[in-house]
Structure formats: structure tokens, C-alpha cells
């Protein structure tokens, strides 16, 4: 947090904003013919992503914190965004955009899938600034995930240039990120893991993500 001319600037928010900007620019550069659709649907995806991310986090911490601190539900700048909520919310945002604007949803989701992992990689640095997302043995999970997301971005970028993978980047992203979260979830401290019937929620979403990704990847373009 930085104070400048009486204005409080939260580094967490600045880093998230930087990640989103770089991710969007990467999408526009990679899909120049879709520039208009990407720019037009951006606010829909962003709004859905932020709402979904915060909702996921608030539900996770409701019994431990937010039911006693209702006004803190809106304090997004203090941290607390669930990435699976962000992904789900962004997809819903794009679906709504496509519905109201009568645009094909698949190409737009395909484009945003390429920029998502680089945005997530940069966004994880916000966890470092807030002093959060460390493993049960002190491992910097934010750094692990940032590096893995960056690797996923590079893979998608390479596959983008191969026509054989046209229309399948969304599926590959969902598979890749699902695997990343499943691998890292076991390193998190037990007490901070949101579980449903004893199973980590992030792993449930990870498995669903992989299944959906496989189905999308097998579809004909």
C-alpha cells in the first residue's frame, strides 16, 4: 500500500490491473482480426471475472470471517479473489455478451484463453505483496503457480501458431490450469483449504476443468 498526495494506492490492485492489461494485449496481438470483438467483450469478461472471483472467496471464508465482517465483503483491494470463481465468472460474462450482442462465443473464449495464464501469472505477484499464498512448509506457492502459468502461456502461444490446434486453445488452457491447481493444492496448509465433503474444492474444479478441456479439445474446429 502506497500513500501519494493523500490517495491510497493498493499494490495488489495495481498488479492485478497490470496482469489483466498485459493478458488482453497478448490476446489482441495474437488475434488481430478479432480486435473489435475482444475490446467490446472485455468489460463483460472483466466484470464477470471480478464478481465470480470475489463470490468464490467470500463463500470460502464466510463462516471464518465474512459473516462477522459484512462490510469487508466489498474490500476487493485488500485481497481475496478465488481464481476458479474468476474463470467461471469471466466465461459467464462472455456468454452473456455473446447472447445480447448475437456474437459467436467460441472464438472469443478461445482468444481470452490464451491471455488468461499470463494475466494469472502476473496477478499471483499480488499474493506476494499481500504476504499470502504460502505452502504448509513455507513454500512460495504464488511463485510456483506464477511460473507454471507462464509456462502454460508459452505453450498456448506456440500452439496458436499451429493451425492443427486452431479452436482448441480453450480446451488446452482448461486442461493445463486444472493440472496446475491439482498439483499445487496438496501443498496448501490444511486449515485454509475450502473442502466439500472432505475434498478440496479447488481439486473438484480442477477435475471438472480437465474433463471439459478434454471434451473441447476433441471437438472438430
TrEMBL record:
One of its GO terms (cellular component) is plasma membrane. This is Phosphatidylglycerol--prolipoprotein diacylglyceryl transferase. PANTHER family: PHOSPHATIDYLGLYCEROL--PROLIPOPROTEIN DIACYLGLYCERYL TRANSFERASE (PTHR30589:SF0), PROLIPOPROTEIN DIACYLGLYCERYL TRANSFERASE (PTHR30589). Belongs to the Lgt family. The chain crosses the membrane at residues 6-29, 41-59, 79-99, 141-159, 166-184, 196-216. One of its GO terms (biological process) is lipoprotein biosynthetic process. The lineage of its organism: Bacteria, Candidatus Collieribacteriota. InterPro entries: Lgt (IPR001640). Keywords: Cell membrane, Membrane, Transferase, Transmembrane, Transmembrane helix. One of its GO terms (molecular function) is phosphatidylglycerol-prolipoprotein diacylglyceryl transferase activity. The keyword Cell division does not apply. It comes from the Bacteria. It comes from Candidatus Collierbacteria bacterium CG22_combo_CG10-13_8_21_14_all_43_12.
Amino acid at each position: 500500500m502506497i500513500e501519494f498526495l493523500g490517495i491510497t494506492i493498493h499494490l495488489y490492485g495495481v498488479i492485478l490491473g497490470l496482469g489483466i492489461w498485459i493478458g488482453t494485449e497478448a490476446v489482441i496481438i495474437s488475434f488481430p482480426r478479432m480486435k473489435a470483438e475482444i475490446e467490446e467483450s472485455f468489460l463483460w469478461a472483466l466484470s464477470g471475472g471480478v464478481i465470480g472471483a470475489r463470490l468464490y472467496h467470500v463463500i470460502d471464508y464466510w463462516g471464518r470471517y465474512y459473516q462477522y465482517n459484512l462490510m469487508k465483503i466489498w474490500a476487493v483491494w485488500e485481497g481475496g479473489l478465488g481464481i476458479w470463481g474468476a474463470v467461471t465468472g469471466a466465461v459467464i460474462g462472455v456468454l452473456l455478451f455473446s447472447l445480447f450482442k448475437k456474437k459467436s462465443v467460441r472464438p472469443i473464449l478461445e482468444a481470452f484463453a490464451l491471455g488468461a495464464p499470463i494475466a494469472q501469472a502476473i496477478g499471483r505477484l499480488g499474493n506476494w505483496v499481500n504476504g499470502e499464498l504460502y505452502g504448509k512448509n513455507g513454500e512460495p506457492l504464488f511463485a510456483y503457480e506464477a511460473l507454471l502459468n507462464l509456462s502454460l502461456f508459452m505453450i498456448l502461444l506456440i500452439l496458436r501458431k499451429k493451425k492443427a490446434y486452431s479452436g482448441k486453445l480453450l480446451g488446452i488452457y482448461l486442461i493445463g490450469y486444472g493440472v496446475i491447481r491439482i498439483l499445487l493444492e496438496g501443498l496448501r496448509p490444511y486449515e485454509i483449504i475450502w473442502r466439500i465433503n472432505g475434498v478440496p474444492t479447488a481439486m473438484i474444479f480442477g477435475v471438472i476443468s480437465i474433463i471439459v478441456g478434454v471434451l473441447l479439445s476433441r471437438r472438430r474446429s
